[in-house]
């Protein structure tokens, strides 16, 4: 490595080894920066090339104005990439396709390999079909392999074909927990150079690694592919919120209670697009597991990251999880040499400041549909009653006289806080002051009970958020033991499940002798994966599902996950609550949200009523078992052959060789079309003539509106494609599972049922006007795009403000490009989607300030000509282009913002750029 313009290259001696490092103190102003910006500064120092990363970029970061609005763009080059299987499959499809393109152009296909380490953990595919039995785990994994055989064969091939690409097989753990327990380096040693471990991932909760001082966040698949191939990620130098922690958590509270409190505070404050960094004496009081829980929830705050600096607790965790002593020594020496070691007495400069006394945290839930809606456990019953009243009224129309006649009001008072005691009460009342609609249910095994609003239909210890934390997991298991000792078990209508984030969890529960108690109350192991947290809850028992849907019952789910959005957990469950693992078990025992769980008996035991306080474990007991039951050998043994997999994984029949043997009949994995007809040199950039508008959209169109997601509905173009290929409706699966097949995905692009295309009046969904037909009738967007393609007509999209906001879904850009869209003209863009459009060869244009489609009189029925784009062939980027739309003419700003982006666009996309560069070398 050579020194950069700041002369910062230096040596770091650690034991008998010497490392090259880029000294931060060589740059004036670096000492005052927050930890997270110091990591970014080192990244720029190490990657300075005079083009994408310049001395001016480095100075801009070192001289960061904490109070200024972000405006300076920099290029961040992450050290590695991590993926999960849903979002990672398209990345591997693209790499496999690139190999064929290199071969077709006369090059060596084996040169297509990730340049940065890339690791994938298969965790998104296991579904809780079976629960409450000793063989639930084995049966769920077997079903997972049956459903996903094609995808797994493809990934298994990728694991053998690509260098620097490794796959953690199914049944191992959740990506974020495997990351912090094993994959994360904290400080890299590569080629004799030591530098901070930075990592982006194709899942928003990649931020869990922030808990051990690793800077990273979730990105879209296009950015992940680019990072794998050595390309930087464009970003604005962010504002950094300093969050000071003081005091200690009181007895009886958990990391879950803390993180729900922080989520509520930061959502209210507003941290979207900002870094959050924790500091202060209270940080020392937080075990690493609690820090990881907080980092994991960063997307729920809305922040880009939520990071903790390195300290002794970090080293203790690295040692516990089996990292080598040489690596631990490097982490300590590097952090202290670079000013990255936490010093509670020093307060860095931040853009904004917040503070929390940990002693004020109280037991909490969050729900019924947003993580930031924290509820004190003491108020949970009252809050549920208010929320369920609103739900029941919304579906029954309580103010409607017909509802009053069908469901006469009783003499009981209205719900607490509702003075209208004489208003109609949907579903009657049970005298308790809340909606009541008891429905008798008899299960197949003869068990009978009555189901009502608020009954807990799902209780799931799930997600890496909390199952990574041994304190809450041991607490849950001890509570289960105490419940069994009192003669308690789950209510028969509750679907219970235990899906830890890694095998270490079940190892220490087994060593502590607590597994039998979890099994006895129905919390049997169902899988190592995300399960209920991402909606892979599996079906409720048929009799329960029928009772819920036939009677519009507002049953609930209680889970230890990070998201509880409406409809996410189960299609049968209307109200979802986030809780700590011990509270998940408590509510499974109670069976209802309509309970003051702190004071009311939660169930009848062998010797009478049992209250939560009777079975809640003492913190000293939890800590003692954590200390005695978890050892370094558990991690070293669990991760010794983490990429090897079990007999099922190793036994998959896979093709051999450097090129993948595509199955033309596959509806899951298809060769990507991005390199079809590509030459060794790019064609000159051309102006756009005779374009038609595929969609005219308003403000705040998100990537969720654009990108295919969710189930594939019958009658849609994607469904028609699957049916034409012999797939039965019951086997459609989801768009997520079919992300490796572009034929399915482009048919679902712009197909969101809430999309409003202004080319049509009052119509929602994936429709447009097809101007290839005589009277421009309404048509599916996909069908119209195919008709335009047959005529050689390019397409444009017109949009308002904040186009492409929300999650950085790669298929929002991929689908746009594959539909034939050559340019988007919007009032403003979300940063990542704008970048992704360029990465797919789509030109992002922006209306000039004060102008919009409306002010210019654009209806979307015009034919568009865009000229001046050819100036890109001269090496620069034009500030503006001219747009003519029938008789209207205006200037549009070219939103290609960096030299690297210009190179991507000239090549037709980022993958084409990388491929051609490899061929030239």
UniProtKB/TrEMBL annotation:
<dbReference type="InterPro" id="IPR036008">
    <property type="entry name" value="Aconitase_4Fe-4S_dom"/>
</dbReference>
<keyword id="KW-0456">Lyase</keyword>
<dbReference type="GO" id="GO:0051536">
    <property type="term" value="F:iron-sulfur cluster binding"/>
</dbReference>
<dbReference type="GO" id="GO:0006099">
    <property type="term" value="P:tricarboxylic acid cycle"/>
</dbReference>
<protein>
    <recommendedName>
        <fullName>Aconitate hydratase A</fullName>
        <ecNumber>4.2.1.3</ecNumber>
    </recommendedName>
</protein>
<dbReference type="GO" id="GO:0019679">
    <property type="term" value="P:propionate metabolic process, methylcitrate cycle"/>
</dbReference>
<keyword id="KW-0408">Iron</keyword>
<keyword id="KW-0694">RNA-binding</keyword>
<feature type="domain" description="Aconitase/3-isopropylmalate dehydratase large subunit alpha/beta/alpha">
    <location>
        <begin position="64"/>
        <end position="591"/>
    </location>
</feature>
<dbReference type="Pfam" id="PF00694">
    <property type="entry name" value="Aconitase_C"/>
</dbReference>
<keyword id="KW-0411">Iron-sulfur</keyword>
<dbReference type="Pfam" id="PF00330">
    <property type="entry name" value="Aconitase"/>
</dbReference>
<feature type="domain" description="Aconitase A/isopropylmalate dehydratase small subunit swivel">
    <location>
        <begin position="719"/>
        <end position="849"/>
    </location>
</feature>
<dbReference type="InterPro" id="IPR001030">
    <property type="entry name" value="Acoase/IPM_deHydtase_lsu_aba"/>
</dbReference>
<dbReference type="InterPro" id="IPR006249">
    <property type="entry name" value="Aconitase/IRP2"/>
</dbReference>
<keyword id="KW-0816">Tricarboxylic acid cycle</keyword>
<comment type="similarity">
    <text>Belongs to the aconitase/IPM isomerase family.</text>
</comment>
<dbReference type="GO" id="GO:0003723">
    <property type="term" value="F:RNA binding"/>
</dbReference>
<dbReference type="InterPro" id="IPR044137">
    <property type="entry name" value="AcnA_IRP_Swivel"/>
</dbReference>
<dbReference type="GO" id="GO:0046872">
    <property type="term" value="F:metal ion binding"/>
</dbReference>
<dbReference type="InterPro" id="IPR015931">
    <property type="entry name" value="Acnase/IPM_dHydase_lsu_aba_1/3"/>
</dbReference>
<dbReference type="InterPro" id="IPR015928">
    <property type="entry name" value="Aconitase/3IPM_dehydase_swvl"/>
</dbReference>
<dbReference type="InterPro" id="IPR000573">
    <property type="entry name" value="AconitaseA/IPMdHydase_ssu_swvl"/>
</dbReference>
<dbReference type="GO" id="GO:0003994">
    <property type="term" value="F:aconitate hydratase activity"/>
</dbReference>
<keyword id="KW-0479">Metal-binding</keyword>
<comment type="pathway">
    <text>Carbohydrate metabolism; tricarboxylic acid cycle; isocitrate from oxaloacetate: step 2/2.</text>
</comment>
<feature type="region of interest" description="Disordered">
    <location>
        <begin position="399"/>
        <end position="440"/>
    </location>
</feature>
<dbReference type="InterPro" id="IPR018136">
    <property type="entry name" value="Aconitase_4Fe-4S_BS"/>
</dbReference>
